[in-house]
Amino acid sequence: MNLNLQRPLLFFDIESTGLNIASDCIIELSFVKIMPDGEERVKTWRVRPWDYANNCQKPINPSAMSVHGIKDEELKDCPRFCDIIDTVVRWIGDSDLSGFNSTKFDLPMLAEEIERVRKYTDKKPEINLHEKRMVDVQNIYHVMEPRNLKAAYRFYCGAELENAHAAEADTKATYEVLKAQLDKYSGTLKNDVEFLANFSERQRSVDYAGRLALNDKKEVIITFGKHKGKTAREVYFSEPSYFAWIENGEFTLDTKRQFALLKQQFDREKRKAAAESNEPLNEAQLRGATNRLANHFGSADKTGSLF
């Protein structure tokens, strides 16, 4: 069954230096872009994994190398992710996204590389992956036939997947599996990207690492640690220093960005509420304001008076 698309659907797959999203890097990225008229466009990059903080190539974890077979020396003349970011963003464009197990690994890894470009270079890619609809073919597979891509290809396509763990082969196989799923489950699945994205969405995470999620009331809650289950808003107003702890902690850049966006939202709400209250300053607030003015104008005497 051909896909019923209102806009392009971009299948993608990543090979990396390892499995730690916060510290590992993309070394191979493949896109298979399916246009609404059925045209297929394919683009694959080999990427030099770059440690921006130390300005050097990041080595591949031996356990990852044993899976994809890519060696460090093969990447020394390849572009870094920051060198291809503009092309990557153009390829994604207004596409919806799809992949195999992508919500748990490939999508967070891609988002983390984009955030590194924002943080460590002067480039500011104009893309927000959180706004994209994501069809995770593995989630559909696990819901309908509770197992990996090789098994899915054998089950749905009736053949063995050749060259598994090569990014382009895996990406094309994912596309073929989704089409076969639509044929097999035509009574359950709709040939519609929005339906498929909702069907395959198993977590209502706000960030890709799952540190923030939506509860039944659509409120953003914290999912770990001492504030597990509390709303982010509640924590902000009771312990605002928690947001600074997140910013300085060992969390993915995407998680830090989502916390920062929430803090900006809550800061605006706080300022608006203060402006609308028009309440006079109490003694402590007045003393604080006086000291700030004194520091600004440099004319306060030792008693704190401005005169």
Automatic annotation (TrEMBL):
Q: Tell me which SUPFAM superfamilies the record gives.
A: Ribonuclease H-like (SSF53098)
Domain Exonuclease positions: 8-187
Query: Is the keyword Transcription regulation in the record?
Result: no
Gene Ontology annotations of biological process type: DNA replication proofreading
- Entry keyword annotation includes Secreted: no
Q: Which UniProt keywords apply?
A: Exonuclease, Hydrolase, Nuclease
Q: Which GO terms describe its cellular component?
A: cytosol
Cite the GO molecular-function annotations of the record.
Answer: 3'-5' exonuclease activity; nucleic acid binding
One Pfam family recorded for the sequence? RNase_T
What PANTHER family does the record tag this protein with?
DNA POLYMERASE III SUBUNIT EPSILON
What's the protein name? 3'-5' exonuclease
Natural source organism: Candidatus Cryptobacteroides faecigallinarum
